[in-house]
Amino acid sequence: MKTNFSRREFLAAAAVAAGMSLAPSAPRARAQNAGPGFRTRLQRALIRERPAADGLRALQEAGYDGIEIGVLTPEEAAAARALAEQHRLKIHSVLRGWAEFNSSDQAKFDASYALSEAALRTAEAARADAVLLVPCRIGGMRIPRPWEFLIEFDDRTGHLERVVYGDNEPYAEYIRAHNHAIDTSRKAIERLIPLAEKTRVVIALENVWNNLWVQPALFRHFVASFGSPWVKAYLDIGNHVKYARPEEWILELGDRIAKVHIKDFKLTPEDPRGEGKFVNIRDGSVRWPVVRQALESIGYSGWLTIEGGDLSPLEHRRRLDLIIAGQ
Question: How far apart are CA 125 and CA 220, in angstroms?
Fold first, then answer.
């Protein structure tokens, strides 16, 4: 069965504009940061891969609810948890980052897999409930420009069949590499699921400028293909702007979103590649009031973790509070 989802994306955007409500089933948060007129409650976090007392004190004073850490030993993670709790902060997630599950080098695959296992154990010791994992990346071949993608894929396997309108032969290598990445990533993640269940930590998959799963329905299909509550999506708001509006990703993924990174991206139409650059939140092309309504529509109550930017923690929190308020 072929799936062409350009119409789905159109309907997703229309749903936001109309304020449609989807079934609430995303993880529920403990904080009381709902924003006026919203049911969903959102928690504020920053990334601190190796947290230290001074830095955590600053976040506590700035009004954050928690942090996301890097991969640590279980002993280091337990100590980090205790330190965070002293400052009334929660470690909610572990940043595993890039893996190489599609590598032909067995040593690289093995190292990637071992680090992914270590990330799950870090999360268990820190009492976090998710690990951010980017399964792999591809490149070095001809790839459609962001606005050229019109993907059709096999609904049984997730394999790409077409990526643009018209002649797809120029992108044959890209299609092969993408399908190989799907298969190898799926096998690796399926191997990780028993440990995720044992540690009670969600494997939250992210596609971040890795030339994979570049449109919402394709990514949703990959995440859903595991049929496991221990595999969900980690949605980065800024990473996807050049392919589709963030609200389209939110509505398509729905209750499969485990966590959200807050980042902004400024599109530059004069750029012949049709891309742009990352900027501080609220300085880019993301329509934050629409994003907030989309999160409300899917019933997402959970963490918003700011990634990147050069603002102070206090200014970052001030801007994040405006987003939570729907402004």
Answer: 29
Q: What is the DSSP string of 81-94?
A: HHHHHHTT-EEEEE
Rounded CA-CA distance 169/164 in Å is 10
Q: Which residues of 218-236 are buried (b: 16+ CB within 10 A; e: fewer)?
A: bbbbbbbbbebebbbbbbb
Query: Measuring CA to CA, which residue among 22, 59, 34, 17 is closest to residue 324?
Result: 34
Q: Residue with structure tokens 């990352």?
A: 278
Is 100:109 a contact under the CB 8 Å cutoff? yes
Which residues have a Cβ under 8 Å from the Cβ of 317 and sit 6 or more positions away?
44, 62, 63, 64
Domains along the sequence of the chain with CATH: 2-324 (3.20.20.150)
- Taking only the tens place, the pLDDT of each residue in 257-278 is 999 999 999 988 777 566 788 9
Closest alpha carbon to 241 in 214, 259, 222: 214
pLDDT digits (tens, 9 = 90+) for 203-214: 999 988 899 999
Q: For residue 154, give both structure tokens.
A: 């096999």
Alpha-carbon span 68 to 92, nearest angstrom: 6
Nearest partner of 90 among 119, 112, 61, 69, judged by Cα: 69
The encoded tokens of residue 235 equal: 């949605």
> What are 159-193's pLDDT values in tens digits?
999 999 999 999 999 999 999 999 999 999 999 99
Supply the pLDDT for residue 35: 63
Closest CA to 182 of 137, 126, 119: 137
Q: Please, which residues have CB within 8 angstroms of residue 310's CB and are 6 or more apart in sequence?
A: 280
Using left for φ > 0, alpha for ψ between -120 and 50, and beta otherwise, residue 23 falls in: beta
Residues in the chain, overall count: 327
**Cα dihedral: 176, 208, 249, 307 (round 10):** 180
Contact predicate 256/232, CB 8 Å: yes
Which pTM does this prediction carry? Answer: 0.88
